[in-house]
Design goal:
Structural class: alpha+beta
CATH architecture of the largest domain: Alpha-Beta Complex
Number of domains: 2
Number of helices: 10
Helix content: 25-40%
Number of strands: 14
Strand order of the largest sheet: 9-11-8-12-10-13-14
Radius of gyration: 20 Å
Distance between the termini: 26 Å
Strand content: 25-35%
CATH class of the largest domain: Alpha Beta
CATH topology of the largest domain: Phosphoribosyl-aminoimidazole Synthetase, Chain A, domain 2
Order of helices and strands: EHEEEHEHEEEHHHHEHEHEHEEE
Mean pLDDT: 94
Oligomer: single chain
CATH superfamily of the largest domain: PurM-like C-terminal domain
Largest sheet: 7 strands, mixed
Length: 327
């Protein structure tokens, strides 16, 4: 395709034709000539909005794009119902690649009961790989709004799934040929399949039902970055046991190979939760088939401490995600 807005014929057959899943809140959705979406929100609810770009992944970028935004809204305590997409495609992108990207995103939206309600698609020479920006819309009760700034000293810190799972999956896909020269093929295939766990929608619902009012999806900067961010937002300290943080062996070995820190690696699929009864929440999550662990607690003051076999290490403000050291 040539630079500029995607032609109407291509837009119809390769973008709009892929959008099949619908939601009752959406009164006006994606369509030719429709520059705005219109949604109906009941008077006792609030609208929750989040936006994210995907630039690090080229393989399954559409899948990551939908889940990262859905996770943000779920961590905010809301139910995501719609997304708007901005697709910036390199000059020469084939229509088939566009159609496949849209079909991939629609498939993830259907799984999560989300409607693609609009957006913009353009071919431009200013990018050298597809850039996908997703703006998500969610709804929730106006009476109970979780915030990262509500951590209280004495609360438990719970983490779901495993550190670095998003970054591990991306590395296994983007660097597959190189990694398979050093690791067994089935080992790398297992690492690639970690992308199956990148949604936190289910655990966020369970955490809300358990009474948690602080949830933070762990994305860029990894576990260490997320711990710093929630502590800074609440002006509290944290004390976390490094060996309590769940991690997959695939992540450990791939990070060792690339000489990067797995706790500073993109971790979509992991939810950090502050609550009064961490062990009780872990039990509830286990009943739903979601692995989780109490990794530490909230403390008074401003010390953000990682315990490593008795040694105390102080966290520092988040730096660039270690995935970018490889890609």
């Amino acid at each position: 395709m040539k630079p500029g807005k995607v032609p109407e014929t291509i837009l119809k057959r390769s973008v709009l034709a892929q959008i099949k899943h619908k939601r009752p809140e959406v009164l006006v959705g994606a369509g030719i000539g429709e520059d705005c979406a219109v949604v109906q929100i009941p008077p006792d609810e609030v609208l929750v909005v989040s936006t994210d770009p995907i630039t690090a992944a080229s393989i399954e970028a559409g899948k990551y794009a939908i889940h990262v935004t859905a996770n943000d809204i779920a961590a905010g305590g809301a139910e995501v119902f719609g997304v708007m997409l901005t697709l910036l495609l390199p000059d020469g992108t084939s229509e088939e690649a566009l159609r496949q990207m849209m079909a991939e995103m629609e498939a993830e939206c259907e799984k999560l009961d989300i409607q693609i309600i609009g957006g913009h698609t353009e071919v431009t020479s200013v990018v050298n790989q597809p850039v996908i920006t997703v703006t998500g819309l969610g709804r929730m009760s106006a009476g109970r709004i979780p915030k990262s700034a509500d951590l209280i000293p004495g609360q438990d810190l719970v983490m779901t799934k495993w550190a670095g799972i998003e970054g591990t999956s991306i590395l296994a896909k983007e660097k597959e040929a190189e990694l398979k020269r050093h690791f067994p093929a089935d080992f790398i295939d297992q690492a690639k399949r970690l992308s199956e766990y990148i949604s936190v929608v289910d655990e966020a619902k369970i955490a809300m039902q358990h009474g948690a009012l602080v949830m933070h999806d762990i994305t860029e900067g990894g576990v260490f970055g997320a711990l710093w961010e929630v502590a800074a937002a609440s002006n509290v300290g944290v004390e976390v046991d490094l060996y309590a943080i769940p991690i997959k062996q695939e992540t450990v070995e791939i990070c060792e190979y690339f000489d990067i820190n797995p706790y500073m690696l993109m971790s979509s699929g992991c939810l950090l939760i502050g609550c009064d009864d961490g062990e009780g929440l872990v039990t509830e999550l286990a009943g739903a088939g979601i692995p989780a662990a109490v990794i530490g607690r909230v403390t008074s003051g401003n010390d953000r401490v990682i315990l490593n076999r008795g040694e105390r290490r102080f966290l520092t403000p988040p730096e660039s995600d270690h995935l970018y050291r490889v890609l």
